[in-house]
Amino acid sequence: MIFSAKVVATRSPSGRLCVPVAALWVGLQLCLVEASFAQASFAQTSFAPSAPTSPQAAARPAGQVVAEVRIAGNHSVDDQEIRAQIDTRAGQPFDPMTVQRDVKSLTKTRKFFDVKVKTQPSPQPGSVVVIYEVFEFPRLAYVHFLGNEQISARALRRQVEIKEGDPRDTSAIESAKRKLTKFYEERGYNKVQIIVAEGLRRDDRGAVFRIHEGPQQRIWKVDFVGNTIVSGGRLKTQIQAKPSKIKYITPMAKGYVNRRMIDEDVHRLTAYYRSLGYMVARVGRVLKFDDDGRWAELTFVVDEGPRFVVRSVTFSGNQTFGEDQLQSLINLQAGQYFDLPQMNKDVRQLSDAYGSVGFIKADIKPSPRTLESTPEVDLVYDISEGDRYRVGRIHVTITGDNPHTQRSVALDRISVRPGDIVDIREIRASERRLRASGLFLTDPLKGVRPQIVFREPEQDETVAQGSARPGTFRGQSPDGADRLQPPKRPAGRVPW
């Protein structure tokens, strides 16, 4: 088995070789350490078309060829646009499954409310003519908004995503109504009412939305009640609802009362408290409006409950490392308050420990289990070690406008070689060296940076294709007979 690594980079202007854009692709074939490989078995699955449901379908003998494909019933949609959506072609064998996919593709365009397929004999022996008969939606003659006073029709048109000349699809019009409602509510119009006055009946020519906006509601201030372990200022960083910046009505004030966002903030605060060990914490919210219903005070009511303590930490499924070895790698221990961020850091440290000795696909899942009678947590790490890998072939591909950088430029900065036991830390260090070389563009904002991506090897590929000397290994022993020693954890709480 194998993985593949991909490094995308752009040459720096300061480099000696002037390469505007270069992409470095490094493939690390990581093969199992064990000498014997299990031979994979593959099962073939065949799909047969469903039984014919029409007289035309029943009359289709096997082995017919499509002599011609015709389009019928279209008025505003031209033939070429329809043919671009279908795969049935003249000269190919007739395939009912392909025809079904063609009908589905045409329906998905939302330009036709029905598509029927007919076949008729062709003058050529053993062939048929396939006819796609389409039934188009009527076109929208107009899209109007009535009653909108605070938000312009131009802004509303951008939200509905329908316009004059589009197919009059009732589902698209209903979707436009939902989008308008959400758009208004996100801007504090929580009492908005929108009715589709035209567009849902068969004889309607256009779409008309009748809108009653109601008052625009804003938040005056945000308070917290019941919080003792965390300050109100800290809790405000966990929520999205914010008070208005200006205490009078203006588009710049913002601070809209968005009930959906406030409900999400309740879930965020609850999750935040539980990440700190308050496993039964509850959070509510109260909105108090002034007399005209435009300004509100938002109060989050917190019931913290007890803070849970870790009673025990155990591991399940570990074979390579012993219990004591894994315990030495984690910081969250029995007797401490449960801390979700620290638990996640411990998972990364355990993953790095396994990845440093070739188990790069080890899956570690923490499972905090609360007790019914006492505020305690039993923390269990379920470990699926997977297979142990070594490096196979290393592929380097450099692309760009005019790439001429040598492969050795990348290989010199990669500290793994064919035959090595895979060490995930060495792979990360290799990526850092590629970025720090200044030869390739690193732009985190655009996601452009050298990176190593693994891939599984093909069946006909050998472990190292003669790249490594037989019987020689770098790193840990591949035998796996004795328990391996994980890397020592650095001092402090800083993860690797």
Protein topology:
Elements: E1 7-9, E2 22-32, H1 55-58, E3 65-72, H2 79-83, H3 96-108, E4 112-121, E5 127-136, E6 143-146, H4 153-160, H5 170-186, E7 193-198, E8 207-212, E9 218-225, H6 232-236, H7 259-275, E10 282-289, E11 295-303, E12 309-316, H8 323-327, H9 340-355, E13 363-370, E14 376-384, E15 389-400, H10 407-411, H11 424-436
Parallel strand pairs: 3-5, 6-8, 9-11, 12-14
Antiparallel strand pairs: 1-2, 2-15, 4-5, 7-8, 10-11, 13-14
Search tags:
496 residues; alpha/beta; Ubiquitin-like (UB roll); three-stranded antiparallel β-sheet; three-stranded mixed β-sheet; 11 helices; 15 strands; 22% helix; flat; disordered C terminus
Give an account of the 3D structure.
This protein is α/β, with parallel strands linked by helices and 496 residues long. Among the domains are: 7-34 and 389-446, no CATH class; 57-136, membrane protein fhac (Ubiquitin-like (UB roll), Roll), CATH 3.10.20; 143-212, Roll (Ubiquitin-like (UB roll)); 218-303, Roll (Ubiquitin-like (UB roll)). Helices cover 22% and strands 24% of the residues. It has 11 helices and 15 strands. The chain has helices at 55-58, 79-83, 96-108, 153-160, 170-186, 232-236, 259-275, 323-327, 340-355, 407-411, 424-436, and strands at 7-9, 22-32, 65-72, 112-121, 127-136, 143-146, 193-198, 207-212, 218-225, 282-289, 295-303, 309-316, 363-370, 376-384, 389-400. It has a 3-stranded antiparallel sheet with strand order 1-2-15. Strand 7 (193-198) and strand 8 (207-212) form a beta hairpin. The two termini are 27 Å apart.
